[in-house]
Design a protein that fits this description.
Layout lengths: L1 H10 L10 H8 L3 H15 L26
Helix pairs in contact: 1-3
């Protein structure tokens, strides 16, 4: 669902707030406010997941996986 990922990345900030007016988004993008709300809830959940603090020395190249950096809150 690349469209939903795009909505989370470009319409909702890291705190779960809409960046733009919801009524403008629904009119311009042609999507329902329920879908926007769902993506907002998902983004809030993703941003509240526990984050492991690591230093550069903790990363071993052959065991490297995707690491999501903690946002500056």
């Amino acid at each position: 669902m690349a469209q939903n990922q795009w909505l989370r990345d470009n319409v909702v900030d890291n705190f779960g707030n809409y960046i733009y007016c919801v009524s403008c988004l629904t009119a311009y993008l042609g999507i329902g406010d329920h879908r926007l709300h769902q993506q907002r809830i998902i983004k809030q959940h993703l941003m509240t997941e526990p984050v492991v603090q690591m230093s550069k020395g903790d990363v071993v190249c052959h065991r490297f996986r995707t690491v999501r950096l903690a946002s500056n809150r």
